[in-house]
Amino acid sequence: MMTSRVLPSLNALRAFEATARLGSVARAAGELHVTPGAVSRQLHLLQEDLGTGLFVRAGRGLRLTDAGERLRDATRTAFDQLQATVRTLRRGTASGTRVIGCPGSLLARWMIPRLERLHADLPGLHLHLSPHDGEFDPALPGLDAALLIGAPPWPSHWRVHALAPERIGPVLNPRHPAFARLSGQPAAALAAEELLHTASRPQAWPQWARRQGLDPARLRFGTGFEHLYYLLEAAVAGLGIAIAPEPLVAADVAAGRLAAPWGFIETGAQWCLCAPVAGDAQLERLAGWLRGEFAAGG
């Protein structure tokens, strides 16, 4: 007689695995797209179900108990195996479909305008593009690859295809009241302006300032936005001066919707296509195509 499996709730196990891996209920909630309270409730139910504690408080953080460490190892192995199987099934049932994660701003402003050309140039490649905000989990769960901006050190198991150096610079609408006054002025003139900024790239303005020999503490920040996409839309609408990766605004600059009076500088990071496994010929083709698009600009 076959014995039925008696396991805790899958949602509870997912909440535990994410919390154990990320070391934080809040970060686990962000990854799972639920509230911290929902994660805490799942952890409480799981500990009640198992009849043992899995975490103890350690200062402001959490520490796994011995039981928690055992369950962490088991869930990590199980979810890794499940992820690998799902990836294989997706490839087998979707005629070569690859699931690619990328920042939502890149998806909206750079990838979508190029999809028709991508389909024409690589007709055998089928993509499912998944918007992603924040840091990527090194395991890239549910993804065949991630298109991102980063720099070494990389996770040891990643196959990293370098595509182009990251370049950023200030942009504003030529009809903005400050445009005529600032045109021809050195970069230091921006220290007197209120700058648009984004929570998703808080380091961008300070990084640019340091490369220009300016003290980041002199910068004045005005309206902030949660995501880079909204920041760039605000700049196009003439609401102020934003800091932007060159590929995401090149079309707007070419069309005159934005201007980049101070040009763009390299940050030391790279645009990369990163895969959790090596040897995928379809991803190699995609990386080559993306590299060509970045090189062509616009």
Describe this structure in words.
α1 crosses α2. The protein folds into three domains: 10-85, Arc Repressor Mutant, subunit A; 95-162 and 271-296, Periplasmic binding protein-like II (D-Maltodextrin-Binding Protein, domain 2, 3-Layer(aba) Sandwich), CATH 3.40.190.10; 167-268, Periplasmic binding protein-like II (D-Maltodextrin-Binding Protein, domain 2). It has helices at residues 10-22, 25-32, 36-50, 66-93, 104-111, 115-121, 179-182, 204-211, 228-236, 246-255, 281-296, and strands at residues 55-58, 61-64, 97-102, 126-131, 145-150, 159-171, 194-198, 220-225, 242-245, 265-275. β1 and β2 form a beta hairpin. The strands form three sheets. Strands 4-3-5-10-6-9 form a six-stranded mixed β-sheet. A two-stranded antiparallel sheet has the order 1-2. The protein is of the alpha/beta class. The longest helix has 28 residues, at 66-93. It contains eleven helices and ten strands. Residues 8-65 form the HTH lysR-type domain. GO terms for molecular function: DNA-binding transcription factor activity; sequence-specific DNA binding. Belongs to the LysR transcriptional regulatory family. Keywords: DNA-binding, Transcription, Transcription regulation. This is LysR family transcriptional regulator.
